[in-house]
# Entry
Amino acid sequence: MKELSSIAQIGNPILRSKALPVARSSDPTILQLIDSLIDTAIANQGVGIAAPQISQPYRLFIIASHPSERYPYAPTMPPTAIINPQILNHGEEVVKDWEGCLSVPNVRGLVPRYRQIKVEYTTKEGEIKQEILTDFIARIFQHELDHLDGILFTDRVTDPADLYSEAQYRQIISASDLS
# Structure
């Protein structure tokens, strides 16, 4: 069985620090970190996780979107390592939607994010990629990129009334599934 990394919780200073660029994606330490991030995200049913969340100060995150109890309509994609990411540009449309975080347990919020973004990042294989991301995948990318800059989703909530407990969130989601 793989050893899972513990997840840094809100209050841990690493979650408020700016992460360092990855010099070489082929570095064995980085490849091991990618595997650890993937295993930790899957074990915790996360759709994404950033290196600072497991106390590693690197500009690296995983997107691992899949439908779950928390995100029943999430698209399925294989866990993907995103190294030294940046947003090159974005559309004008901003959408407020649900977010949570493995580092901020039992809290959900309605967070405004760009619906469409053009991004650039390095793959695990060292290839530089540019992509246009939309909707839920764009939201995950923006959420995880924030982690690399010391920003939590709760910082992005524009109205305190848009913060909910996990229990309240589940009630709201259940009610919307019935309608």
Notes: Strands lie at 48-50, 60-63, 80-90, 94-101, 104-114, 116-122, 128-134, 163-165. The radius of gyration is 16 Å. The domain at 13-178 is CATH 3.90.45.10 (Peptide Deformylase). The chain has one domain: 13-178.
